[in-house]
Amino acid sequence: MASKSxxxxxxxxxFVTFExxxxxxxxxxxxxxxAAKGAxxxxxxxxxxxxxxxxxxxxxxxxxxxxxxxxxxxxxxKSAPSTWGLIPLITGLAAxxxxxxxxxxAKLKWPNDVLVGSKKxxxxxxxxxxxxxxxxxxxxxxxxxxxxxxxxxxxxxxxxSLADYCDEPPSPIELARNVLSRFELLWQNWHGDSGISLDxxxxxxxYAPHCVTLDQPEIAFSLIDGTKVVGRPLRIHLEGGxxxxxxxxxxxxxxxxxHHIRT
Length: 263
Fold this sequence. Notes:
The protein is α+β, with helices and mostly antiparallel strands. About 20% of the residues lie in helices and about 35% in strands.
């Protein structure tokens, strides 16, 4: 049976306490259940071992003990749901700036994949629910260490860890505290306590220099239905979508996956 414990969270933030479980299927799923039962904003769940974690587009995230930060946290934004597409950008910005502070030359692939070159360091999945008590579950997986000198063979070509760049990478709890401290500051600057007056342009100005997608001359965007749109990325929309110049004109794409075209 999985064990549970609590530890102190991120200082000077709404994330006062972290709940830590030894094993679970998915921290996002567990926290979604808690949110439906009325869990407060700022609830945080961290798994030492996760067996059924999911990233964007249904991709799997698995981790051995201590090799990955597998964490989810609960937000109850007061802004309109049309603005919630910016939450993945806030999360990605918090994650990439923390990685950079640790000496990792990380960048963002829109909206929130944290990459070093073409290899993934972290992935983020935000899931929302409406109703009388709206909620956004923010889930993040960041590779810390492989537990050996190199990545497992099956992911060596596509993944990278903090330990590849840090002599002493942080523990999952320490990393969570640092990322959530950054998230708190970004959230307050954008949303504040009321969500009435959003500083969206300030957020996008902070995000853009870290987003390598915007530096690409051309990308292929895969829509959920399998359709591909090829074009030149121009900017980030005020609601978080990717604005592209395509053969059919200017389009803002929101649901799908951006693929950098290597030349």
